[in-house]
Amino acid sequence: MRLGEIHLRDPFVLSDESTGVYYLYGTIGQTAWGGQAIGFDAYTSRNLVDWEGPIPVFRPPSGFWADHHYWAPEVHLYQGSYYMFASFKADHRCRATQILISNSPLGPFVPHGEGPVTPPDWECLDGTLYVDDEGMPWLVFCREWTQVKDGEMRAVRLSRDLDRALGEPVLLFKASDAHWPIEAEGEGNFVTDAPFLVRQDDGQLLMMWSSHGIEGYAIGIARSATGHIAGPWVQEPELLFEKDGGHGMLFRSMEGQLLLSMHRPNIHPYERPVFVPIRNRDGRLKVILDTEIGQQINEEKSEE
User: Fold this and answer.
1) Cβ atoms of 123 and 154 closer than 8 Å
2) CATH architecture of 3-302
């Protein structure tokens, strides 16, 4: 199948250069907003155009604490194992990030540790892994606007085997610290979504994140003034993407092209994965315009 046939939100791509295989994960579109969640699936490709799947990679075991809103799985290779970070929800329990583990990118993934790694009384989502220059793993995640109105970006240290949080989460920034987010879901409510950390060759530390902008769902960039996770974080004046696409992450093609993966549009049930070429120059990330490349890579290849 082609990307346009895959109904996923929050698409995340893991590239395996040793085998030449791309693994695509995401929120299953059909159960993104309601109904009994079934788990997470993956799709595989060797050219980013033709995909095979869905392949079940996580199905909740008996007694698993969450039964709906299985969102935004990310898979990271860390110390020889594959770890999935994902958001889960249950009635009368706060939305939380749970870490899963497998010895294969195609699972089966099973719960890791004794439960969620975000605070039990916080509404949290979109946890991502960041490993600092000392090799210490961190969970970077969003504390939801549904609880604090002005959505927060937080970070907490993880144990080296990723089975628990260490200490209290630190506040990195709030959604309203950037000029571009607009109020959503009521007056005074600002969304933080989808942190993704990028370490530049010159040592600069960037964070991509999403919220609602004037032209729809959008991706902005924050920059750590110190190059460390604690910041302070300075919001870039220009958006990376602003026209109703978001929950982005970066990966490289087997040919070395830097690509932005996101879903677009942000309208259910029409959201689909999209890959867009990115230029990384002088510490700045920028979408390569259509006039420079002809078309987005997935559209261009589909017509070959």
Assistant:
1) no
2) 5 Propeller (2.115)
